[in-house]
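RESIDUES AND SHAPES:
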Amino acid sequence: MKSKPKPKCPICKKPVVRKGNAFLPFCSEQCRLIDLGQWLDGGYSVPGIDSPSAPDSDSPENN
């Protein structure tokens, strides 16, 4: 029987201990804060489809 591979921290790639780890899926608070900083700095983005902007209902051209 094969043992399950240990999950790795998405930041530092070290093995992550699951039991009692308050920082899952990260290995430590430091890696968790690095990830949070990436989100806050706009380092992560989700690709989307550009859509035409909705007409501004307050503009005089639309009245």
Q: What stands out?
A: The chain is about 20% helix and 0% strand. The chain has a mean pLDDT of 85.
